[in-house]
Amino acid sequence: MIFHQLQHELDERATQGLLRQRRTLDTPQSPHIVVDGKPYLAFCSNDYLGLANHPQLIAALQQGAQTWGAGAGAAHLVNGHFEPHHRLELRLAAFVGKPAALLFSTGYMANLGVVQALVGKGDTVFADKLNHASLNDAMLLARADVQRYRHGDMQQLARMLERTQGGRKLVITDAVFSMDGDIAPLPELLALCERHDAWLLVDDAHGFGVLGAQGRGSLAHFGIASPRIIYMGTLGKAAGVSGAFVAAEQVVIDTLVNHARSYVYTTAAPPALSVAVLQALQLIEQGDALREHLRRHVAQLRGGLEGLPWRLMPSDTAIQPLLIGDNRQALELSERLRERGIWVAAIRPPTVPQGTARLRITLSAAHTADDVERLIGALHELAC
Ligand SMILES: *Cc1c(COP(=O)(O)O)cnc(C)c1O
Q: How many angstroms is it from 306 CA to the middle of ligand 1?
């Protein structure tokens, strides 16, 4: 009977155009992929700089495995903490201008760990309504009080902070909103945190490597720094590998080492991955040309899609969502593109709010101007 219930729920999802399915790639990540035997031009990865399949990263990973083996074999606090982990943490901290950093196996785990280690019962988390699911899950897990403010609404956040007395206060936000592409008003957020003695957790999954001088991320983009900022960056998106890190004051990092359950109770990521990320950091640092390429694609796409019946959401970043609204219509458009050999993911609730289904177009430095032109042409055809 329980299987019947599950099947029924899945069938319901399907009729609402909400059933999720996976497709299998037969080639490495790149703008040109083969999926289930068919070639596609893809606009949906988060590999913004085209590093996921970069020969220097592949070589570093191979050399890392040669030197350090395949697996870490234990948690960091047992005997799974290796020299490349240590070296990478020092390098990441310096790169984003923080005293210390800590590696996590994924960004999802980093967010769970940070929030749960820093706040609990009697404390309050203030969260943008459009934050990533991992931040939302983190605050539930932490059992702190939760106050969610309207997307980017600093006045509402200010009122919430004023009204809240006692306990620790933690404001959490995506720096670049993952499904919208817009950038959080970090200077204003920091000012509010200063005024109300709150911490600010910045999730820079989509800014690290892409924004700021030398790709140092969203804090560098705005030129802001403060000990009360806790910075989280991921290493599986622009950095092209896997994992995440938190950078903060030493006392915060020491607290995470002791209390972040998603750090303590899990096997360390293979040290070879850290060797690859160290190589990725060098490419990121020297990657001004890649970032310039990406910026040109953004301008080309935004110019090229003017006049369509669907609107590109306001965004200067590599995430360029085309708002469709209806779930099935978004799915249908994604399907029509796919028939033309172009792969763009349709994003539907609950990942985004009801009535805001969209095509999440993401651009990469690995795309060519011709690739972008092909997408523009296909969308204009489908609009007729
Ligand atoms: C992708 C993402 C994460 C999770 O990072 P993973 O390393 O993929 O687990 C966290 N926050 C945001 C905003 C993201 O887009």
A: 30
